[in-house]
Amino acid sequence: MPEFVPIHLLYLAIAIALEVVANVLMKLSHGFERKGPAVAAIACALAAFTALSYAIEGIQLSVAYGVWGGVGLMATAVLGMVMFGERLRGSGWLGLGLIMLGVMLMKFA
């Protein structure tokens, strides 16, 4: 693995943000019936994978992908609650907590 360069963390943060935006746009597309949000969701998802590919040049794949997926899932869940009034039961909160723990443990991988 090459020496750590902070730009790779920026690429990872961009990948996470784009993934979350893509997920919200998918919801707004109503099952891809609304073409504008659907096309934007696909573009954001492709851009997220592109940013992730740059991130893994300097961050281990297992760490980058785990953080990308875990943080993206947590942010998407929070936005679902804020923007769409979605709610989680206790088991959902437990699951989010376990994901957060897993992401923190990946730092030591």
UniProtKB/TrEMBL annotation:
The chain crosses the membrane at residues 6-26, 38-56, 62-84, 91-108. It is a multi-pass membrane protein. InterPro entries: EmrE-like (IPR037185), Small_drug/metabolite_transptr (IPR000390), Small_multidrug_res (IPR045324). Keywords: Cell inner membrane, Cell membrane, Membrane, Transmembrane, Transmembrane helix. It is found in: Cell inner membrane; Cell membrane. Pfam families: Multi_Drug_Res. It comes from the Bacteria. Signal peptide: none annotated. Belongs to the drug/metabolite transporter (DMT) superfamily. Small multidrug resistance (SMR) (TC 2.A.7.1) family. Forms a complex with MdtJ. PANTHER family: SMR FAMILY PROTON-DEPENDENT DRUG EFFLUX TRANSPORTER SUGE (PTHR30561), SPERMIDINE EXPORT PROTEIN MDTI (PTHR30561:SF6). This is Spermidine export protein MdtI. It comes from Dyella koreensis. The gene is mdtI.
